[in-house]
Design brief:
About 45% of the residues lie in helices and about 25% in strands. It has about 130 residues and is an alpha+beta fold. It has a single domain, classed as Ribosome hibernation promotion factor-like (Double Stranded RNA Binding Domain), CATH 3.30.160. The longest helix is centred in the last third of the chain and has 33 residues. The protein is rod-shaped, with a radius of gyration of 27 Å. The N and C termini lie far apart (about 70 Å). The model has no long low-confidence stretch (mean pLDDT about 85).
Length: about 130
């Protein structure tokens, strides 16, 4: 997994950045090594917004791109919420890839059975001819 952490509207200390990297490394165990994960740390400027620390992430997977956004009072709390959400999304996508083809194949109706009379008639005509 390739991780890009960027900060919008301000600066974060190295402790926050390393915390974000370690949490997303946990998510990286479920992803392919060539997957690109872009994480953006942002801070809302409106003083009325209590959860002003925002963490956004986009996972560039082989199929669909997964996006998530969480806000909390600290970057660490928002990161925890976002990683939990993204783990659920990744598992859901994996289940779709694994289980949906099986469901389609399993749910297909079998061919209609041929009545015994038609089989007997076909055997008689081949035996006579």
């Amino acid at each position: 997994m390739r991780l890009q952490v960027t900060v919008r509207h301000g600066h974060v200390n190295d402790g926050v950045r390393s915390y974000v990297e370690s949490k997303f490394a946990k998510l990286g165990k479920r992803l392919h090594e060539s997957t690109l994960v872009e994480v953006v740390l942002d801070r809302e400027r409106n003083p009325r917004i209590v959860d002003d620390h925002v963490v956004e992430a986009e996972l560039h997977l082989k199929g669909p791109h997964l996006r998530g956004r969480e806000a909390a009072t600290t970057y660490e709390a928002a990161t925890d919420l976002l990683v939990d959400k993204l783990e659920r999304l990744v598992e859901r996508e994996r289940d779709k890839k694994v289980h949906e083809p099986r469901r389609r194949a399993h749910g297909a109706s079998p061919a209609e059975p041929v009545p015994a009379e038609e089989i007997e008639q076909a055997l008689r005509t081949t035996a006579d001819g």
